[in-house]
Amino acid sequence: MTLAFSFNLLARDGKARRGEIAMPRGIVRTPAFMPVGTAGSVKAMYMDQVRDLGSDIILGNTYHLMLRPGAERVARLGGLHTFARWNGPILTDSGGFQVMSLAGLRKINEKGVTFQSHVDGAKYEMTPERSIEIQGLLDSDIQMQLDECISLPATREETERAMELSLRWAERCKQAFGEQAGKAMFGIVQGGEDEKLRLRSAQALSAMDLKGYAIGGLAVGEPQAVMLAMLDVTCPALPEEKPRYLMGVGTPEDILESVARGVDMFDCVMPTRAGRHGLAYTRRGKVNMKNARHAEDTRPLDEESDCPASRDYSRAYIHHLVRAGEPLAGMLLTWNNLSYYQSLMADIRAAIEAGRFAEFREETRARWEAGDLPPV
């Protein structure tokens, strides 16, 4: 295995890219989807299951792990990999999004953010330096800069202010991170729905010569067309030889369209959250397992899948579990959903390698639009 962090592009098909991120703890095949392990666990899943589905990397959350059990405690217990029994790479986000969306009594200034915990009301200060320190204590392999993620829509003045502050914080995070063998710090492009601000942010971050770049502040309620328009502007402005990570995205359709624009990495709570609420993602689109049409359907969710949750349990049984409020319902549907997401990513990678991504994209969309098969 490599002792350094590197990104190698193996194939291109249009703007879609097939690559590999190499780190001491393993290789991440891109385009990659990272299951979200917010508080040190991928909800309703064993880590062995997550690994067996083909996940090369998972995401941990700085904000939640800082509040409990605490970054210093995780460090004393051997770091997040040992603590959670995950031996592959881990990316940690900076905590900035949760500070903005969950914490109370926030106060933002040049130094950082002071806020009140949503757990117990305790007051904390998060600076760029402290965010990097926490991520170091967690011992994550890819660490994200602290940024200010604002809600959309917002005025241009507010968007520009937050974008410029995020750039200054990126410089401070870079200094705090320093040189760490085999690890990387990514910057985060901001700029809301403004193409010129997005371009300025991407260019300024590119000049910092970071090891990777994320695109933040999207998938926060804006129409998909807006998100894709921002990618059309941002991706070409980022270095070709560095990985590109679209934060918090998304649906299978979002992923497919974003890969077509040159994105390499994704994360989202959607497959796990949907599973806990009775929704299955399949090759034929979304299937609502609360629906009475499944009550006597003996077919599995997907007879062609390698995943036991998709292949070996009847729709009737899963429907019963959902309606009865049994925890096993969320476990099986999450297992199915993450299996589908990783299968989709593997098929995307194969299509790019074969030079037929455009055809695969159309075939996949047509299958989703055709919808689930009716009960027999």
Map the helices and strands.
Layout: E1 6-13, E2 16-23, E3 26-30, E4 32-37, H1 47-52, E5 58-61, H2 62-67, H3 71-76, H4 80-84, E6 90-93, H5 96-101, E7 104-108, E8 113-116, E9 123-126, H6 128-138, E10 142-144, H7 156-177, E11 184-189, H8 195-207, E12 212-215, H9 224-234, E13 244-246, H10 252-259, E14 265-268, H11 270-276, E15 279-282, E16 285-288, H12 308-311, H13 315-324, H14 327-354, H15 357-370
Helix pairs in contact: 6-7, 7-8, 8-9, 11-14, 13-14, 14-15
Main sheet makeup = 8 strands, parallel, barrel
Helix content range of the residues, please?
Answer: 40-55%
Q: Could you name the CATH class of the largest domain?
A: Alpha Beta
Give the helix/strand class: alpha/beta
Account of the protein in words:
This protein is of the alpha/beta class and 376 residues long. It folds into two domains: 6-190, TIM Barrel (Alpha-Beta Barrel); 275-370, no CATH class. It is 42% helix and 20% strand. It has helices at residues 47-52, 62-67, 71-76, 80-84, 96-101, 128-138, 156-177, 195-207, 224-234, 252-259, 270-276, 308-311, 315-324, 327-354, 357-370, and strands at residues 6-13, 16-23, 26-30, 32-37, 58-61, 90-93, 104-108, 113-116, 123-126, 142-144, 184-189, 212-215, 244-246, 265-268, 279-282, 285-288. Strand 13, helix 10 and strand 14 form a beta-alpha-beta unit. Helix 8 crosses helix 9 (224-234), helix 13 (315-324) packs across helix 14 (327-354) and helix 14 (327-354) runs antiparallel to helix 15. The radius of gyration is 20 Å and the shape is globular. The chain starts with 5 loop residues before the first strand and ends in a 6-residue tail after the last helix.
